[in-house]
Each structure stands twice: as C-alpha cells, then as structure tokens.
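Figure caption, in words: inputs first, then the predicted bound structure.
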Amino acid sequence: MNSTINDISTSLAGVRLRNPTVLAPGILGITSSSLIRVANSGAGAITTKSIGPVRREGHKNPVIVEVPCGILNSIGLACPSLDESLDELKETMKRVNTPVIASFYGRTVGEFGEMAEKISEAKPDFLEANISCPNIENEFGKPFGTEPEISARVTEVIKDSTKIPLIVKLTPNVSDIKVIAKAVESSGADVISAINSYGPGMVINIETASPVLSNKFGGLSGPAIRPIAVRCVYEIYETVEVPIIGIGGIQTGRDAIEMLMAGASAVGIGTGIMERDIKIFSEICEEIRGFMRSKGYSRLNELIGKAH
Ligand SMILES: Cc1cc2nc3c(=O)[nH]c(=O)nc-3n(C[C@H](O)[C@H](O)[C@H](O)COP(=O)(O)O)c2cc1C
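Bound structure (flavin mononucleotide present):
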C-alpha cells in the first residue's frame, strides 16, 4: 500500500493539471480577482463564466432559489462587454500558473468562430464552447447542444478559427447524450465537459401563489443532479476517446471519485462552493488522497473509468 500519495495530477489534451479539480464556469463570475483566489486556493484549473459577444444584463432578481439538494438558477448568462471580459481574462492569464479555461458562447454558429478567434488572443490554455445554455435565444430557437448536426457545425467552425485546445460542454437535456458526444468528437473537440444544469425546473411560492424566479424556470444544479451527471459521463466514456471533465453535484472527495470512476479525467465544481467555500478544492484533493491511501491506489489514472 502506498502511504504517501502526493501526485494526483491528471492531463487534458496534453495539458497537465496538478490535481483533477476544476472551477466550473459561472459560479464565481469572470473577474480576475475571484478566479485568482480559486487558483491560489488549490484548484487544478479554473474556468471563466461564459464570455458573451455583447453585454447582457441577464434576468431580473430573484435569479437563484434553493431547493432540496441543490439550487435552481436563471441568471440568463449575464456578462460584461466582450472587451471588459477580454481584459479580465488577460489579467488572469498574467497572474496565475494554473491552467485557465475560457468559456464562451455565440448567438449563431458563425459567431462561435468569431468569438473563438478573439478570445484566443488572450492565450487561455483552453477554450470551452458553452453550447448547452438554456437561456440563450439563437438562430435555431433551441440550445445548440440539443442537435448533433448543429453541435458538430459549431465545433468545426471553432476548430477552424483557433489552435487552442477546445472543450465542448454538453447539456444533459437530450434524449441521447452519446450521439452529441460522438458528433462533437468527430468534428474535432479535444475534450468534452458534462454536464451543464438540468431542467429547467420551477418553484412556486404557495403563500403568494406565484413563481419564485423572475424567469419562472431555472436550471437545476447541485447534488440533486449528480446521478444524472454520473450516468452522462459513464455513457460518454463508452462512446468517445477524448478526455472528459465530469461536472454536476460534486461536493466531496467521494463524489469526485465516483465521477472519475465513471470515466472523467477531471471534475468540475460549481454549486459545491456555496456549501464549502473555495477551500473545497484543496479539501476534495485531500479526501481523494485519503481514499486512495485507504484502498491502495497509487495513481489517479487507476481510478479513471474504473467502473466500466
Ligand atoms: C449560478 C450559476 C451560473 C452558471 N453559469 C454558467 C456559465 O456561465 N457557463 C456554463 O457553461 N455553465 C454555467 N453554469 C453551470 C455550471 O458550470 C455547472 O455545469 C452546473 O452548475 C452543474 O455543476 P454543479 O452541480 O457543481 O454546480 C452555471 C451554474 C450556476 C449555478
């Protein structure tokens, strides 16, 4: 048995992460100061909130409501102007050694390409295409990531616009996530991340007999969606060769290990930060090490896909 496990590094498309924990996009926004705080607190990689082509106010408050085992959110991809977002990204790139994932979206297939080109100037370690947000109106009237052909076209257009490794983030709100995963891999995605929030769902205040969220509906995140996320990652792992970032309801080292065993090479953490603050990254790493020690694992690789 190995009693001193220090190295829990992993790799995504040739980029080394000192540990498998990744800040999921959105929870802490886009400002360099909050991203740098997470990098310094021990995350293996950090993801910006999805950068948009134009300033968006998002939906009116309330945009978040707590539910059993999670939250519903309808932030509506609120974001600053593209120039402001790029300044924040450049500042972050100057000040951290931790790999940075720049998440972004476009309103049309072509705009994904234009965005990729512009964001690449800031030289993030990865681009992440958010084709899964339910809150964005687009030329097709439904999220890009719900159709394999559209998902493939978005991926191709981005790959033609940049040399930076591309992560494509999938939605669980499809009848067969394997088909979408295959489509984006065939079109050049270097990494797949899954899942974005599930739903939408709804909460009604029975005292006032009205919906709680101003937008009425919101995406579900947190432990409530973990079994769905684990199933999605398990299916994606059986379908594609590219590495996977597993996201959805991870709050403990044991949750992270379950996701690794389903086939993820790294794990995204979002809502968990609201429970355990940003120390969650280093604590989950310690919990992973403790599990590995107690079970006699010596390398993180031994856990990845172990449940298959
Ligand atoms: C408040 C909030 C904002 C989010 N914003 C984004 C975003 O900008 N881009 C994105 O790809 N996902 C976004 N997400 C989804 C998360 O990155 C993640 O996929 C989802 O919350 C599931 O993980 P979790 O259960 O660990 O939170 C957001 C989630 C929340 C709760």
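The domain at 10-302 is CATH 3.20.20.70 (TIM Barrel).
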